[in-house]
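Q: Is it fine to ask for two folds in a single conversation?
A: Yes, each is treated on its own. Send the first.
Q: Here.
A: Result:
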Amino acid sequence: MTSLFIDKAIIDWDKVEKDNYLRGIDAISGVGEVTFRNPVTFFVGENGSGKSTLLEAIAVAYGFNPEGGTKNYSFSTYDSHSELCDAMRLSKGAGRAKSGYFLRAESFYNVATKEEEYSRGPGGNPMHFHKMSHGESFLAMVKNNFRSEGVYLLDEPEAALSPQRQLALLMEIDRCVKGGSQFIIVTHSPILLGFPGAELLDFDDGPVHPIEYEETDSYLITSLFINDREGLLRRLIEEESK
């Protein structure tokens, strides 16, 4: 047993229909299990490579609402999650998480609305997320819900955050990790991917596999742009005009 709350996501492909689109996702099709070895794991890769699909299945298999929130949240504005969760079993470590949250960029507005509703209940601390900017409300929700000894699944959190706010999120992640929490995060952000000691799992070029920070497209393209912005844009524009 490990000290992580989730150490493996095990997929039984016999429970997935032969014509299901999940079998066409190269990164996960036929993969029997994905192992987590670190308190912070990032899923990286191109759009449509299966990162969010796998994260969502892990979240639902763990007991989270598909649209996000804590395990106590129960609402649905649009039922769009895949059947992968039905074929998934999670291997858990020795400890039991004291808190948890599934936070995804695409349904953040809906979760923020529910957060406000729940906070107005008996004994609640009324929150006003919709009176804040997107980035401010996102970080306020993190600070309000992320604690020690928790499981936190984040889907493209950078969508709401400026570079400075991404650094602030990194500090919140570090605070929670030092308190024994575990994070699994889908991101394209070279800032977030730089979290010290994190494991990066790549969803490009075949089945999901570990990758070094400096090998990710997020790092390579950002580095190329910063070091030779004019040259890169000139080449792109010239190719587009041909």
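Q: Second one now.
A: Result:
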Amino acid sequence: MASETKTEGAQKAGLGVVAWKMDEVEKVAAGTGYSTAHGGVIEGERMLVGYIHKPRGTGSRMHSHPNEQFNFVLQGTLMGEIDGIPFKAPKGTLVHVPADAPHQMIADPDDEDVIFLALKDLSHGIIGMAIDGKMSGPHFEKGFE
């Protein structure tokens, strides 16, 4: 099994390790240039799992990536837009992002920080590309700059 990962700083599954305490996995930027998302990422052979944190009132600017994604909200409320469809996803909600769909996800400023599991196929790493092509920083709701 190869030990390389598509996400810089992610850990590779296998290699004698079969279980991880996700809140203790080394954190990586999970949206460099367009999001405040960060957390531990484990990559297998065909999929990755991220234990992702977004401080309330912050999140991503509109972006996309070529891999399909599911987010399962563990804490807080995730809100935003996926392919033109607005959503609000409290704890216990599963969110689906189709491959290549433009989307933006923000931790609701009226709730606590968001923690979610991100599950993606490994046709690409965890980081996408801002729709405007400018990797110039994350989204901040008013008062959360």
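Q: Anything structural to flag on that second result?
A: Two points. The domain at 52-136 is CATH 2.60.120.10 (Jelly Rolls). The mean pLDDT is 95.
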